[in-house]
Amino acid sequence: MDSHPLHRLTAEQVHEFHLNGFLVVEDLLTARETDALSDHVDRIASGQLPHIPQTSIQLEPVFRSGERAATNQVLSVRKLYDIAVYDEQMWAHVTHVNIVEIIMDLLGVKDIKMYGDQLFMKAPTTGSAQAWHQDSASWRDIFPMDLVTAWTAIDDATLKNGCLHFIPGTHRWGMLQSNRLQHVSPDFGSQRWPIRPTPLKAGSVSFHHSLALHMSHANQSAQRRRGYAVHYMRATSWKDESVTDAPKMPPFKQVCGRSFPERV
Known about the structure:
- By secondary structure, this protein is α+β, with helices and mostly antiparallel strands.
- It contains eight helices and 14 strands.
């Protein structure tokens, strides 16, 4: 890692990421860029853009189950996924130089592909919680398990509306299946394994390792908490085709640098 010149981060920031498994960088987007992203994601969530398949839109559980009627499509959406492969404006965000240069610094390479993307809407009062998890526990067909997510705050993410929480250093534990996670989770929040909330201002971005344990609480406020998560990996990553229970993803798009056809 030290042999690669840094593009945007300091050596101290890279060290912090590798030590803790996450890093916050403030104000990566301008106010104008953040406002444009905010308007566009609501158009996508409305379901009215024909180039976004309905299969990319997932409603909150209370609306999927019929417990509550969905009277407002945008505020009923839990998340949207695999949208940048269909939408030029979201792809422009994926390839935003401020974000990509940080990904280069954290992965130590210039050859990068997008694994996928998820847009979390977390509406007021109905926005549900997300339990402790590691991203690579789902993406277990991609090796090395060393992907980086850039999570952009579209709204201010606060303690009340469900900002992300991390446990520093857990990306160095390896992949934890549920039977292993249940043995250590009672200690989460203790002095041994402190929980670190990461509130973000709109336009700021948190970066986390794909093995870092993270979660978010339900939205208990009157304010939305929209966040756009883009998952990046080295173009030299390897996809294990023998793993059949990982998510079925669209073809991985090249973000920058070289492609390696024999790899992902």
